[in-house]
């Protein structure tokens, strides 16, 4: 849609004999950004923005793993999936013209700036950010959990007493990144059980630097 509006603006200016305006500013891309494949069969959510040297990266929940190329909802190219696991996916952002990588998470009602990834201990506070529902908060109840999911056995997970949600973007503790949503058990409205893949092991495994503000 942004490209269409920019094209129409330039064409209109040309017809009127006016100088063309500059291209629209890049849109923010980071945690909470919803991504799609070109066929609309995959919809997934980015958790955190990171850097691999000078390359822009997104750490996403595992729903992105089934896609190759990913786009925004209005089909602006974002990049491609370059690594996957049963718990998460990594997207390399190739379109650096239309997007600006940002160090914050879109909560649907505002943004939370990420300043680091200090790990919260067992018993410490943690919140799940959902682009639609906002924040659901609870505590970390266990670490280094091994859970059997339909996708396979996943180890090294952190367990919380927060109910899982379908549009979950990330787990935070204040302004500290904690991890990527993996799933939960049972049906719940206010409390439950959910797990996340801690962000620091992902960053270490791929030599990434978390983008912070």
Structural summary, described in words:
Helix content is 11%, strand content 51%. The chain is mostly beta strands. It folds into 2 domains: 2-106, Thrombin, subunit H; 111-200, Trypsin-like serine proteases (Thrombin, subunit H, Beta Barrel), CATH 2.40.10.10. Strands 2, 3, 4, 5, 6, 7 and 16 form a 7-stranded antiparallel sheet that branches. A 6-stranded antiparallel beta barrel has the order 10-11-12-15-14-13. A 3-stranded mixed sheet has the order 1-8-9, with no helix packed on it. The chain starts with a helix and ends with a strand. Residues 1-22 have low confidence and may be disordered.
- Name the CATH superfamily assignment of the largest domain: Trypsin-like serine proteases
The overall average pLDDT, rounded, is 87
Using the coordinates above, name the CATH class of the largest domain.
Answer: Mainly Beta
Shape estimate: globular
- The fold-level CATH name of the largest domain is Thrombin, subunit H
Main beta sheet strand tally, sense and closure:
7 strands, antiparallel
Q: Identify low-pLDDT runs.
A: 1-22
CATH architectural category of the largest domain: Beta Barrel
State the oligomer: single chain
Beta-strand portion reads: over 45%
The total beta strand count reads 16
Number of domains as seen in the coordinates = 2
Number of helices: 2
H-E order: HEEEEEEEEEEEEEEEHE
The percentage helix is 10-25%
Structural class: mainly beta
């Amino acid at each position: 849609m942004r490209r269409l509006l920019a094209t129409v603006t330039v064409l209109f200016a040309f017809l009127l004999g006016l100088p063309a305006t500059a291209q629209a500013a890049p849109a923010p891309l980071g945690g909470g950004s919803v991504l799609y494949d070109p066929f609309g069969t995959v919809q997934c959510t980015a958790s955190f923005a990171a850097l691999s040297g000078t390359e822009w990266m997104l750490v996403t929940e595992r729903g992105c793993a089934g896609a190759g190329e990913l786009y925004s909802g209005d089909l602006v190219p974002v990049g491609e999936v370059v690594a996957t696991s049963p718990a998460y996916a990594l997207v390399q952002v190739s379109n650096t013209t239309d997007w600006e990588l940002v160090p914050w998470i879109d909560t649907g009602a505002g943004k939370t700036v990420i300043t680091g990834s200090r790990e919260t201990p067992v018993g410490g506070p943690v919140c799940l950010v959902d682009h639609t529902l906002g924040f659901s908060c609870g505590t970390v109840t266990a670490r280094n959990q091994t859970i059997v999911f339909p996708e396979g056995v996943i180890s090294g997970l952190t367990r919380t007493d927060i109910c899982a949600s379908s549009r979950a973007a990330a787990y935070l503790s204040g302004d500290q990144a904690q991890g990527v949503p993996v799933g939960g058990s049972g049906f719940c409205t206010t409390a439950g059980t959910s797990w996340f893949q801690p962000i620091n092991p992902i960053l270490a495994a791929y030599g990434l630097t978390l983008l912070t503000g």
